[in-house]
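Dear H.,

Thanks for agreeing to be a second pair of eyes. The structure we're designing against is below in token form, covering all 978 positions.
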């Protein structure tokens, strides 16, 4: 039986089908279906469908739904040539250029199926396609058709009949409607099995068989698609890359080059040439060169590419692999033929410039960002389904907070008694949850991969589908999991905010101090930079600012760049297990055990612990005489826990080691050692490269802290949490944050000889337009007083609400009247300002205003908090923390869970509630410089301290507990400090 279920839509027809490809394959296997189709209105899912079918001994038949004159037709490809035509048609379709005339150009080796509702197209399409069928989805439709090419075909958008209950919710999500607004007839759009089709529509089965016989697609993989680099005349890619590397040797080392570099270069060039990757290196060299010529900061390296001397000599990386003992074979192994992978970091706001350079150089259809897909994850699908049912957002948020993202909705329901109890006996919420569980995991939308780009030596739509949702570029129609298998060159152009920060710091230093700093030449032996890590002053330092890393550094007290590299490698899941041993051995409290003297040079810098993957490779070379290529294969097998390979390799390792004079016991002991560490070993090349970025940032923070913190604050505009954290960091580093001033502040943070001035644009309720109006008008002269200000800008993006926000933020403190006086007299002041704008200052009589004493300290604090959501001047609790040495930071309460602690907080809010017995208790919201916490006062405690008020500074002794997965303090004793 060769029956083919036609017109299957998968969830790649975004928010229009409930069929995941894995579920489709499993359904086919369970029901002994031997051939399947895919006919989405795009080709996103074709490669996944094709590969999964072949893996499960199912014949894949690839199709595409398109519209001609707004009527649907289905096209199937007969073979690879037909597939290529389908790709071209798909490109035209995404461009909105598809016409009957265009279709005729690419009609060969395609089957066309014309649904009943598109019959008006049939006579025209019959002239275009050799193979054409008319389809119907009911007997009534069949009776209205004539010819011997009729075929049953209904759109399949869910697998089983019961799923008809859920499809409308998906369509409601797609259309942004309530489910009650979706009206359609989708009751029979399930995958009908052969027996049912034969019973209902027996007449045209032969045509179904015919389609199966016509379609025999075999896709091509591992094609040679790397673009050719256009070399100067008389050079091929090998001779040109060699010339560039020799020039790089002289630039890096002068005329006296150590023999080890010559030998390493010759080896790398030979491997690169033999593997056919000379053009690849030249392409990367070219666009990195372009970036640097345009003043775009490029990272010193990333991943295993930092282990290549060729990359270093071409200025692709800035890490000397021989100096840092990095291995080329960890990057490019001649014994494991795969595409090279040179990922490049650029300033995040200039990454697109480099991509556009490549598109312009190689062609818009030969360079394309990679498509990626968002899915209906557990929290997203709950939110989306709730919207279709008009369920209150607060309820949705409450449910979402109970969900563990790593678990499915079904698993969450089974494992969380709290969730189950909340949902049970609430029919509407149970319906929402059940529907969401059915839709969970479906593709929701397409987007562009954050870094991935592919390049080809031919137009990409000769080999893969392209997508043209964006005006300036195409994206690939397949996601990154399938592109390299085809033979496409994938590269990562990564945008790194820290590189932008470094550029901003260096630029500000030049503008303010007239000091030129070259990032590439910042030294790695600077004592003040090292002290940033030793003293754990690493807030804002790339990969070293998390609380966990800071705790590690406090114990480690790094004293060299090498230890910073090790810290970067160790502070990751897995390697973390070795942290305590590493610290003890560094401090001399644990003996370093040398298994064999020959391994001491390899493990000396890491105190006898295998931290890096490269160390595993070096041990295999020293002990068993492995080539680095063989050693890399061993490392990979171990890290992936390929048991059969590891057993085979152990015998090989032991035999080779004993042949080279090592004892059987030592050989087995060493193999067991590297096996133990293999899954934890980290890529040293990557750790060195990223530690260079961190160290150079530390250099800038150590020598130019004002400029560093200004750039850091600028980078987090819009994030109240990070801004608060970095303002606190400024205070820790004795850098004054100056409150905004109407005559000094700009639209961004600004450095002065006194400190960093807060910008106007990010004061609450001000915004960029009003700030720019104020700043632009100030170019005509400073504002003399509040009247002058109103005369010049009131009504031009600046209204009364704006002025109130400026007053509360302290912007007028430097030009006369205090906050309270301006606020209480604001209407009079605005009227006068308007009057002098109309008649001139000489004709307007200045009004009498009521001069008042300034607000109290507490009120000023409140206004400051309202203006910024944090305190620019000292937080109310700061001075008290200096008096009391024991309080715990709110940020660090996790470490003290289930323990009694002492904390000092500012009382932001209070809420009194009654217990079931009618007793009064209280919930206090308290904050310190960085965080807030809920404090619970049970009746006995609240009765004792009922005189607490909002605005008090209080010291609390209490126990750290959890409520709804959120930390809180159960207060035992309280002292009011202010």
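And this is the sequence the design step returned. I haven't edited it by hand at all.
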């Amino acid at each position: 039986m060769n029956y083919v279920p036609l017109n299957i839509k998968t969830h790649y027809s975004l928010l229009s089908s409930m069929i995941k490809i894995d579920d489709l394959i499993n359904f086919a296997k369970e029901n002994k279906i031997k051939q399947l189709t895919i006919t989405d209105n795009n080709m996103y899912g074709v490669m996944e469908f094709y590969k999964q079918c072949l893996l499960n001994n199912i014949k894949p038949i690839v199709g595409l739904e398109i519209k001609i004159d707004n009527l649907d037709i289905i096209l199937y490809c007969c073979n690879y040539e037909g597939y290529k035509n389908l790709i071209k048609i798909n490109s035209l379709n995404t461009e909105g250029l598809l016409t009957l005339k265009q279709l005729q150009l690419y009609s060969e080796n395609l089957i066309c199926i014309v649904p009943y509702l598109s019959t008006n197209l049939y006579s025209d399409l019959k002239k275009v396609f050799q193979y054409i069928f008319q389809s119907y989805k009911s007997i009534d439709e069949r009776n209205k058709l004539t010819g011997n090419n009729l075929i049953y075909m209904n759109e399949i958008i869910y697998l089983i009949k019961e799923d008809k209950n859920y499809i409308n919710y998906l369509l409601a999500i797609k259309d942004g409607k309530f489910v009650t607004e979706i009206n359609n007839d989708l009751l029979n759009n399930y995958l009908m099995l052969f027996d049912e089709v034969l019973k209902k529509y027996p007449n045209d089965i032969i045509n179904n068989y015919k389609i199966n016989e016509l379609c025999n697609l075999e896709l091509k993989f591992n094609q040679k698609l790397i673009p050719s680099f256009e070399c100067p005349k008389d050079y091929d890619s090998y001779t040109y890359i060699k010339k560039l590397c020799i020039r790089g040797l002289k630039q890096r080392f002068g005329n006296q080059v150590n023999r080890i570099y010559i030998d390493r270069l010759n080896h790398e060039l030979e491997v690169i040439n033999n593997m056919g990757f000379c053009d690849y290196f030249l392409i990367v060299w070219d666009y990195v060169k372009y970036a640097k010529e345009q003043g775009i900061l490029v990272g010193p390296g990333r991943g295993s590419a930092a282990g290549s001397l060729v990359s270093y000599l071409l200025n692709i990386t800035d890490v000397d692999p021989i100096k840092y003992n990095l291995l080329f074979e960890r990057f490019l192994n001649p014994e494991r033929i795969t595409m090279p992978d040179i990922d490049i970091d650029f300033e995040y706001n200039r990454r697109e410039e480099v991509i556009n350079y490549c598109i312009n150089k190689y062609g818009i259809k030969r360079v394309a960002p990679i498509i990626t897909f968002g899915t209906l994850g557990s929290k997203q699908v709950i939110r989306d389904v709730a919207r279709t049912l008009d369920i209150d957002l607060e309820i949705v948020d409450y449910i979402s907070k109970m969900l563990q993202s790593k678990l499915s909705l079904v698993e969450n329901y089974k494992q969380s008694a709290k969730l189950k109890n909340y949902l049970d006996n609430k029919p509407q919420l149970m319906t929402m949850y059940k529907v969401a569980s059915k839709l969970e995991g479906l593709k929701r939308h397409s987007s562009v991969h954050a870094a991935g780009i592919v390049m080809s030596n031919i137009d990409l739509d000769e080999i893969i589908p392209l997508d043209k949702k964006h005006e300036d570029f195409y994206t690939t129609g397949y996601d990154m999991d399938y592109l390299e298998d085809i033979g496409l060159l994938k590269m990562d152009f990564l945008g790194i905010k820290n590189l932008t920060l470094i550029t901003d710091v260096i630029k500000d230093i030049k503008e303010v101090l007239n000091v030129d700093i070259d990032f590439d030449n910042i030294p790695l032996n600077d004592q003040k930079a090292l002290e940033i890590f030793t003293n754990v002053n690493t807030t804002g330092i790339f990969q070293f600012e998390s609380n966990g890393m800071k705790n590690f550094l406090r114990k480690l007290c790094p004293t060299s760049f090498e230890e910073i590299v090790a810290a970067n490698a160790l502070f990751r899941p897995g390697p973390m297990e070795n942290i305590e041993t590493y610290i003890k051995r560094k401090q001399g409290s644990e003996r370093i055990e040398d298994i064999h003297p020959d391994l001491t040079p390899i493990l000396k810098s890491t105190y006898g612990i295998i931290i890096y993957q490269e160390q595993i490779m070096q041990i295999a070379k020293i002990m068993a005489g492995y080539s680095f290529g063989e050693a890399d294969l061993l490392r990979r097998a171990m890290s992936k826990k390929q048991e059969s390979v590891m057993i085979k390799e152990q015998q090989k390792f032991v035999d080779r080691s004993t042949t080279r004079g090592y004892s059987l016991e030592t050989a087995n002991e060493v193999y067991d050692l590297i096996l133990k560490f293999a899954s934890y070993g980290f890529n040293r090349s990557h750790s060195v490269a990223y530690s260079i970025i961190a160290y150079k940032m530390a250099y800038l923070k150590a020598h130019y802290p004002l400029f560093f913190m200004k750039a850091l604050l600028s980078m987090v505009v819009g994030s109240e949490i990070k801004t608060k954290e970095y303002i606190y960091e400024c205070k820790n580093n004795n850098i004054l944050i100056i409150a905004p001033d109407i005559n000094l502040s700009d639209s961004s943070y600004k450095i002065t000889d006194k400190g960093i001035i807060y910008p106007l644009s990010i004061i609450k309720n001000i915004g960029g337009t009003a700030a720019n109006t104020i700043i632009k008008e100030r170019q005509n002269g400073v504002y003399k007083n509040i009247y002058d200000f109103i005369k010049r800008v009131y009504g031009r993006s600046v209204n009364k609400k704006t002025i109130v926000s400026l007053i509360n933020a302290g912007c007028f403190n430097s030009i006369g009247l205090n906050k309270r006086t301006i606020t209480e007299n604001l209407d009079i002041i605005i009227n006068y300002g308007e009057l002098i704008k109309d008649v001139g200052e000489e004709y307007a009589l200045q009004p009498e205003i009521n001069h008042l004493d300034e607000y109290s300290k507490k009120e000023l604090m409140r206004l400051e908090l309202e203006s910024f959501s944090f305190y620019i001047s000292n937080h109310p609790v700061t001075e008290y923390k200096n008096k009391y040495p024991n309080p715990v930071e709110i940020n660090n309460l996790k470490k003290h869970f289930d323990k009694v602690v002492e904390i000092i907080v500012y009382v932001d809010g209070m809420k009194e509630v009654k217990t079931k017995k009618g007793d009064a208790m209280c919930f206090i919201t308290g904050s310190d410089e960085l965080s807030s916490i809920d404090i619970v006062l049970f009746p006995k405690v609240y009765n004792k301290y009922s005189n607490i008020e909002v605005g008090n500074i209080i010291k609390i002794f209490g126990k750290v507990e959890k409520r709804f997965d959120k930390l809180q303090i159960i207060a035992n004793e309280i002292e009011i400090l202010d």
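Two observations from my side: The longest helix spans residues 684-703. The radius of gyration is 34 Å.

Warmly,
E.
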